[in-house]
Amino acid sequence: MSIIPSFFGRSSRVVDPFSLDVWEPFQAFTDLAAGGPSGQFVKEASAVSNTQIDWKETSEAHIFKADLPGLKKEDVKIELEEGQRILQISGERSKEEEHKNDKWYRIERSRGKFLRRFRLPENAKVEEIKASMENGVLTVTVPKQPEPQPPQPKSIEISG
């Protein structure tokens, strides 16, 4: 559950029952005792956490949408862990080429690897997952199994 604020980025007070995030309560203290986290670690953690994905449920499907500007579909990988019902979306934003005479004033766009995992509910038809990418927006559609109709009571006529 994601109710623990992040040391490196935005905090979340939303309880996500499908989250696979594991809170390591002593990790921050270990990093601080060693002089703090490395700049590379902070950049990588930021790249992973900055990939924001919306998940909505409609009457027909679960729909995941991710803004991935500048990425091609070849840069993104979508996997399903069988038996676990875990959808994993990952990829990498490559670093721009740097030339010796370049002078950078600001670097704000995230780069590096990203990875997000979601535990799918029991009603997901994992064998029918579809994905598309248009204008930098990845859409993953996971169809739902129809909800079983509750049995209707049958009237029985009394004779006699």
Give a written overview of the molecule.
The chain is mainly beta. It has a domain at 11-19 and 44-95 and 111-146: Immunoglobulin-like, CATH 2.60.40. The chain is built from 2 helices and 7 strands. The protein has helices spanning 27-33, 39-49; strands at 53-57, 61-67, 76-81, 86-93, 112-119, 130-134, 137-143. The protein has a 4-stranded antiparallel β-sheet, with no helix packed on it. It has a 3-stranded antiparallel β-sheet with strand order 3-4-5. The longest helix is centred in the first third of the chain and has 11 residues, at 39-49. The N and C termini lie far apart (62 Å). Residues 1-13 have low confidence and may be disordered. It comes from Picea sitchensis. Keywords: Stress response. InterPro entries: A-crystallin/Hsp20_dom, HSP20-like_chaperone, Small_HSP. Residues 141-160 are annotated as: Disordered. Belongs to the small heat shock protein (HSP20) family.
